[in-house]
Predict the structure.
Amino acid sequence: MPTARATRRHAGMPAGLRNGPVYMDYNATTPVDSRVLAAMMPFLDTHFGNPSSSHHYGDAPHAAVARAREQIAALIGAVPDEITFTGSGSEADAMAIRGVAIAAIDAGVDRPHVITQPTEHPAVLAACRYVQRHHGAQITVLPVDDHGLVHPDALGAALTPRTVLVTVMHANNETGVLQPLSQLAAMAHQHGALFHTDAAQTVGKVPVDVTALGADLPTAVGHKMYAPKGIAALYILDGSTRSP
């Protein structure tokens, strides 16, 4: 029988963590918090309607989505209209990178230039390769130092008049190193480029203010902070180029 100490230790712990080895891969994914699950349950049963429906069954889900958008905006210092929900962080990253590159081409930029760095999440690197292969974009992969940091001088040397986007993650998912985003973003803006950051590992863990960071297109991911998988968001600064 479980001891009183074990019972107290397991109180509130997800069932999947109670009898297995110690779980230390929270950067990959977190269990769903019981409070998150409780908040979701009414919308999996009673309020099951499509939030875009104009009838009674869409009213409560529509209001819930609006509240969620307000909460995410407040978390990162944004306004609700700047939050676009996506099905994953990978989708949000792709929407930002592909959207900016395609919009630049539509605006007449020949071979738009995108800058990134080698320790990005695979979703970012894959999106960069996609716009290179399918849209003729030029990709520059900046070097990092022994700590995995991008040096601002390296970014400064890589920026060109055709640079439309710089994408550098906020915190690395394996090392935890924090990039000097505000400095990198300021340099990108001086050259007329937008700045995207995969902030999956920082939103909800450390204070994130999109204005202070200078991020035009940061990605936030639910399952990194005790929400279910399949929930993410892309902040799109009002006035930035939006993906189709």
Summary: The mean pLDDT is 93. The domain at 82-235 is CATH 3.40.640.10 (Aspartate Aminotransferase; domain 2).
